[in-house]
Amino acid sequence: TSVLKQLIETAKVLEKTTIMTEADNPMGVEFCRHLRGELVHEEVQFRLYMEDVDWQLVDQWLHRGRTKHSDTQMEFFQDCPEGDIEAFSRVYTEIINQRPTGEIEQELITTPESRRIEERNLRRRGIEWYTLISREHNGDISGLTDIMYNPEEPHRMNQYFTGVLAKYRRRGLAKRLKAEMLEAIRHRFPGVEYITTSTARSNRPMRAINKELGFQPTKTALMFQWSLENLAKRTDRILKRPSAS
C-alpha cells in the first residue's frame, strides 16, 4: 500500500483520473478487492501445444477459406509496409475497439507513428513481432492477427490479437486467420512447443474457435479499476491505521 501511495502521487502529477490494474493470482486479487476496486473485465489465458493441434481441422479451415473466398489474400509482415500503414492503422483501431472489454471505458488508438514506435521498441528488446492481414479483392484490409516471438523463450509463441471488421464477419475469416497463422508458426518456428493467447471471458465466438483448435484455459486475469480520488482516499485510510505500522 505504501508503494501504491507513491504511484498514486505520480498519477496525480500526470493528471490522470483513473487507475487500472490486472491481477491473475490470489494475493493480487485479494489486494485489489481490499482496496475496493471495481471488477471491470475478465481475460482468460489459453495454451495450445503444437503436438495437440488438430491439423486436419486446420487444413479444412484453410481449404474452405482459400476456395470459397479465393479473392481474399493473406499477407505476412514484420514492419507494416509504408504504403499500407495509414489504412492498417485505421483498421487495427476499429477492430481492436470492437472486441468485448467488459466495463472498461477506454479506446485504443493506433496511428502510423505509434505503430512505428512499437515496432522499434520491440526490435530493441529482441522480440519478433509478426502480423498477418487478410486483403479483399478491392484492396481493403478485412482482418488481422499478430504473434510475438522472443528468441530467449524459443519454446513459446504468443498470439496477441485476432479480429475481423464487422462487415466481413460470418465468412469464416477469423478461423482462416487462426489457421493461416498456425501454419506459419509450424513452418517458420519449428522449435515452438506451445502458443498462448488471451480472450475476454465474454468473447464467445473467439473462445469457441480456440476450443475447436484445442486451446486449453490456464488462468484468468481480472481487471480492476478505481477513480484516482477514491483510491487515494482508500490508501490513506489504510496507512493511517495503527496496524499499518
Structure description:
This protein is of the alpha+beta class and 245 residues long. It is 40% helix and 28% strand. It is built from 8 helices and 8 strands, in the order αβαβαβααβββαβαβα. An 8-stranded mixed beta sheet has the order 1-8-2-7-6-5-4-3, with helices on both faces. Helix 1 runs antiparallel to helix 8 (228-240) and helix 3 (55-68) crosses helix 6. The longest helix is centred in the last third of the chain and has 16 residues, at 173-188. The radius of gyration is 21 Å and the shape is globular. The N and C termini lie close together (11 Å).
Q: How much of the residues is beta strand, in percent?
A: 25-35%
How much helix is in the residues? 40-55%
Identify the strand order in the major beta sheet.
Answer: 1-8-2-7-6-5-4-3
Low-confidence stretches: none
| Straight-line N-to-C gap | 11 Å
Question: What class, by secondary structure content?
Answer: alpha+beta
Determine the mean pLDDT.
93
Number of helical runs? 8
Give the SSE order as H and E letters.
HEHEHEHHEEEHEHEH
In this structure, how is the largest beta sheet organized?
A: 8 strands, mixed
The strand count comes to 8
Based on CA atoms alone, the radius of gyration comes out at 21 Å
What coarse outline follows from CA principal-axis ratios? globular
